[in-house]
Amino acid sequence: MQILQSEKEVKERKQRVMSVRDLMHEGEKMTEAGKFEDAIKCYDEALKKEKTLLPLVTGKAQAQIGAGKLHDAVQTYERAMEMSPNNATVLFNRGVLYQKLGQFQRAVKDYTRAAEIMPRNFKAHYNCSLALKKLEHYDAALSEINSALEIDPRSADALYNKANIFVKQREYLQALDSLEEAQKIAPRDRGIKAKLATIREEHKAWLAMEPERRKKREEKYSEKSQLHGYYNRVKKPAVKPEMATTIKVFKLTGNNDGGSGGTSSDSPAKTTGLSKTK
């Protein structure tokens, strides 16, 4: 049931709304001008008058980030999430903040949730891939960057970062393929050109090191084999003559035991149902 308000109450409400709007616009201007502390003051003043307006909270968080108050911004985003828990934009922005703080697990969680709410969110998949790469989860990072490229196949940035993931996996040829594709999209991009040259050199160096890597692997496995043999010799207890067990061998003839004349019960059973791999 709607409660009728007096003319005075309506007038006061209108004035409060106009004041909040003016403070919010002033906060946005201060943020754009790089005057972040002034922007925070504007948002705080507006929030005293209107505590439940989401743009005021997120605006304050952005100003706090600009001012370098990242931990304060985390708390402000916590408030925004309480107000709008399924807001993909808030989740994404908090993920960016976590990424700035080096909290990559939390960033991945927010980006993943944002992408679930808004599956065509290119930035969520893209940033999630970067965070996963920092965590050295390269397969998952590759999956996310591929999801981003499904949304925007002509993103040179996504292809560039896909190449970086391949390099981490030592998949140099695939990295070069991704970069060459990026170069077709952005032929004047000097960064892509420089990265191509770097990866080609790194690939050559990697191939040149292969004999040395093979030698080290052989030495490693040879050493393990020698140690294994040594420990077997050391740990194997010697059998004293008086403890030796005499094993009698009985010749099986006919069906003396009522059986079919097969192997004795002490013989190992043959495995069945297994075939050699060709």
What does this structure look like?
The protein has helices at about 5-30, 35-50, 55-65, 70-85, 90-100, 105-115, 120-135, 140-150, 155-170, 170-185, 190-210, 210-235. Helix 3 runs antiparallel to helix 4, helix 5 runs antiparallel to helix 6 (about 105-115) and helix 8 packs antiparallel against helix 9. It is elongated, with a radius of gyration of 35 Å. Residues about 245-278 have low confidence and may be disordered. With about 280 residues, it is mainly α. Helix content is about 70%, strand content about 0%. The longest helix has 26 residues, at about 5-30.
Determine the mean pLDDT. 83
Helix content: 55-70%
Largest sheet: none
* Tally of helical runs: 12
Assembly type: single chain
Q: Report the end-to-end length measured between terminal Cα atoms.
A: 80 Å
| Helix/strand/pairing category | mainly alpha
Percentage of β-strand residues = under 5%
Q: What is the approximate shape?
A: elongated
Radius of gyration from the CA trace?
35 Å
H/E series: HHHHHHHHHHHH
Low-confidence stretches: 243-278
Number of strands: 0
